[in-house]
Amino acid sequence: MRIDEERIKAIAGNPAVTVPAVLIACWITILFPPASYLSIVFLMLGAVALSQTGKYGWIVLIVLLHPVPVFFATGLAAHASGAPYILVKRSADSRLPRLDYTTRGEVLSVKSRFPWGGWIRLYPHNIAMQLSTRVFGLPEGAYDGPCPGRRQITAELASCKDFPLEELLADRVIAGEKTIELQPGTGQRLIAGFQFTGLPRKSDESEDKTLETRSAAYLLGNKCLILLLRDVGGWDRREVAVLIDAEKGMPFACHDFGTPARNPGFSYYRGWPEVTPAG
What we know:
Mean pLDDT: 81
Helix content: 25-40%
Shape: elongated
Strand order of the largest sheet: 3-6-7-8-9
Largest sheet: 5 strands, antiparallel
C-alpha cells in the first residue's frame, strides 16, 4: 500500500501529467455552467500537488492558463483592439445594439440556459474592460459624447418637429437648424432594419389604416443625435429612438418605445455588414 501511495504522489507531482489534466478539467467545466465553480477547485488541487514537489513555475503556468486569467486577458485585449465589447447574459435589454455607457464597449449578449451560468467568462472580461477604462481612459476611437437614457430621450423629443423622411433616406438628419450627415446608406438601412416601410401592414379595406413613417431629431451637446422613427396610422404603435454619433454619423444605440423592434444589425465600431449581391 505504501508503494501505491508513493507512486500516486509521484504521478501527481509530475508536471507532464498534472498540468494537462488540471487545465483540461478546468476548461471542460466551463462548458457546463453549474459546474464551472469546480474549475477553481481543480486549480487549487493541482497547485497543492505541484507545490509538494517544489515546482512553483508550473503552478504559475496553470494559473495563467486557467479560464479566469484568460478571459481577463480578453478584456484587456478588447480595450486595446479598437472594437471593445462588454459581455452580458442574453435578455430583452440586450436585444437591440447599444454601447455600454461606462466603458463605451459594444454590448454583446451571451446565451446561457442557467441564471448563474457564464460568470467565469463574463465577469473577468468585463472587470478587465472596466479597469482598463479607469486606468487608460476610453478606448481609442470610442464615442465620447452624452448617452441619454429612455427618460431623457422622451423629454428631449417631446417638442421636436418632424422632418421629411426623404432627408433621412438621403443620409441627412435635420435637428433644429442643423443638418447632420450620416454614413452612406445609414438612413435606408435603419428604416429597412426596423421595418419602417411607410406602407400599410395588416390593411383593412373597410377602415383607413394607412401607415405613415415619420421622423424627428434632437441634437444633444453637439455630439449625440437623437433620431425618432415612428409609425402613424398603423394597427400597432411602433416607435424607435436611435442614438447617433453626430461627428461620425454612425448609430451607437437604440431604444424601442412601442412594439418590440427587430435588431437593425449595425455595429458602432465595425459599421454596417457588407451586403452580398444576389446571384
